[in-house]
Amino acid sequence: MTHAIPFACAAIVLLWWWPRPGARPTPPELFDYWTDVRSIRFLTTNATSAQSLTTSRNALREASGRETLHDLNVEKRLDVVSTLESESGFPVAIALSQLHFEADTREILQRMWNEKAAVAYTSSNALIGISVILLALTSGTGSVWWIVSETAGRIVGCTAFVLIVAARWSLRRAREASQRIHESVPKIHVGKNISALLVGLAVLMISPNAVGMSAAIISSITTVEVMRALPSSRVQTAETVFASQRGWLVALLQSGISAGHDWLGTLSMIHPLLDSDLADQLQVVMTRLQWGLPAHEAFDSALWQEVAHIAKLVQEVGVRSEDALDSVRMEINNKYRSQLVTQLERVAARAVVPVSLLQLPAFILLAIVPVVATQFSSLLTIFQSTGVGLA
Prior knowledge:
Helix content: over 70%
Number of helices: 19
Order of helices and strands: HHHHHHHHHHHHHHHHHHH
Shape: elongated
Number of strands: 0
Structural class: mainly alpha
Mean pLDDT: 76
């Protein structure tokens, strides 16, 4: 039984290694009243009492005892809103409403994940627990000693541990992917030459001979040509980021129009406060407006098609642009939330796959292979001793 102690300790570590969506050691909703949703609601309430956003944020820090919100991305956006309010007279209620919607969406996704992926987590924990229990029950047969002392046993134990860690890691990544709202553009991109080199080395490691060298060269050249034919990954990622943040950008645009600024003036005030990739997307629209194109032609792109339609209605029909932009923002938000919920359900439905493919083999390696190996070793010893006796 003493040999089962290390395995029991490892099982406890794995069971408590619960996947989390971020770097927070403990989810704030378990103990902290001031979640991001409540904090933004507090700021919205103070904004209606004619307090500036800066004053409201200072009051929030005193009430919550926190210098920043849990989501630093929301904190950065509040900095943007504060700057636009103080320097350009933008109203804050629209932007705060958008931030409240996004924070509420995050909480909804967290609750949905806990519900939808419960089967995967339960199966993972059950397989770990059953493996340790069976090891403890069969320790008298020498199974644990076989894992600890024999070379084959150590290989089996390490392989099972790696498989379990890989399964838990995949659950962690699945949870992060299912709840990701604000994407960030990666700063490092694997270039065509590096990708070709990695492919060539992989082929050469599989077949380290003259034929493998030729195959590696051909594979590297093919990789370069294929990646050259594909669109730039950075451009694709930037477009994805922009599409996911259209609701926020429309909220800023709506705030500027509500403050009495025109399209170009609003974009000129927003542009310096955005990340470089988002600013590049807006620069295209600003350049068209500076050339004298009407707003509906300047916004004429797949990413701005709703705003282009509103700008055309404003010019031809005379509808209030801020009211029309508000309906567009709600439509974008509802559509994006629906996409996130669909994505979460799809990821949660597949969450049990890594548990089945990785932890079931690990269960067999830990719970069955040691018993079979020790019994086979005992039978082999008996046969050898019998053969020696007969001889």
